[in-house]
Hints:
Layout: E1 2-8, H1 14-24, E2 31-35, H2 48-52, H3 64-75, E3 80-86, E4 91-99, E5 104-108, H4 116-120, E6 124-128, H5 132-147, H6 151-170, E7 179-181, H7 188-207
Parallel strand pairs: 1-5, 1-6, 2-5, 6-7
Antiparallel strand pairs: 3-4
Helix pairs in contact: 5-6
Amino acid sequence: MLVIGIAGGSGSGKSTVVREIIKRVPSTEQVVVIPQDSYYKDQSHLSMDERQALNFDHPDSIDFDLLNRQLAELKSGKAVEQPQYSYLTCSRLAETVRVEPADIVIIEGILVFCNKKLRDQMDIKIYVDADDDDRLMRIIERDIAQRGKTVPWVIDRYNKTVKPMHLEFIAPSKRYADIIVPQGGHNIVAIKVLWEGIRRFVGQEQCG
């Protein structure tokens, strides 16, 4: 099993890089994506106003214990019940998703390099970099279209938590990356080079 970690700021293009990698995976191999966002800690005991005021860009917001445990189980050949998180209610759903072990496991999220135990389980660590203004525009578009937010709400949250947490935790985690993809997920040349590295790594694993 090859475990790939993909980090980067919110709106940097991580999901695009993930899709480009998946497109290149041969049909003979299996790939699963484990989104960090599924592992936000359950806050259903709080009121809705309290939930919406939480800082979701701080490492403490992630249940890294569960994420590490489930990744270890996948690496040992066991299926796991991945939690599901709702951005509308800011709480975990009762339903889970069964995830089976695969040849390639991609762990994607803004904070996945902020936990040493999780980093140590990764074979390749990729940081997706992008200009701050570009990231903000993508965050606005995403949060309005997918999460039912308004422009003033998104900008207020960006200034209060997204930007400060990016500077404090996410951008510094770039130093742990094996590969940095500049210009976000639109850098096709970098993605092609990245895939060649992944392909060689998989080949070495199979030979080893």
